[in-house]
Amino acid sequence: MKRLAAAGFAAAAALAASGPAFAADLPQPVQSYTYADPAPAGRFDWSGFYFGGHLGWNWSDFRTTNAVTGRFNTRDNGVTGGVHAGYNYMVSPNFLVGAEADFSLSAIDKSRTVAGVNYKTSSDWNSTVRARAGWAFDRFLVFGTGGLAIADVDVRANGASKSVARIGWTLGAGVEGAVTENITARLEYQYQDYGTTKFGLGGQTYRTRLDNNQVRFGVSYKF
After folding, report:
1. Can you tell me the distance from the alpha carbon of 173 to that of 103, in angstroms, rounded to the nearest whole number?
2. What is the pTM of this model?
3. Structural domains in the chain?
4. CA pair distance 182, 113, nearest whole angstrom
5. Roughly how many angstroms between the first and final C-alpha of the chain, as a whole number?
6. Sign of the C-alpha dihedral, residues 172, 177, 181, 183?
7. What's the rounded mean pLDDT across residues 122-140?
8. Residue 54's closest CA among 35, 79, 81, 28?
């Protein structure tokens, strides 16, 4: 009886010792690992104040009417440059609204002799205050703009001269891109219409209308 019990005990010990090895030989469940996708890069935020400078080309057209000379044009073009500042607000992740003001200097100066009258036109500066609206593709922006325009209009004829500041309107559009988190670069076009001004020069009345076409490249710092 004792011999039978000892044999049973030995068999149980052997089975216990072989259990881990046997379990190791059994098929193991496949372990699955879940890898989190990398966090997407943050979108560029166009919101906030900005300030910058611009340089471009200005085409001016003065259209004048007078009883002696009839209707004639004096056209000139040249470099324009200045500063601008504004504020953008993102209404949605893509739609932007804002406001901007700029001041530019230009060298517009043209003379023409018509019917014996030497008529000189010039404009040295212009400024605008505009609303902006655009659609952002992350670091790239397409925008339209429009608002108030102001410019000086100088005329000279018959030994007399007059200078006035004319108020008009402007419309334009452009594209802008983020170079860094704080620096943006733009290319834009503006049309500016300053209407007609009446000048009394040397006993004659002249009516002169001015409009500008401007293409400008600009760089801004966004705060």
Report:
1. 17
2. 0.79
3. 48-222 (2.40.128.90)
4. 51
5. 96
6. negative
7. 97
8. 81
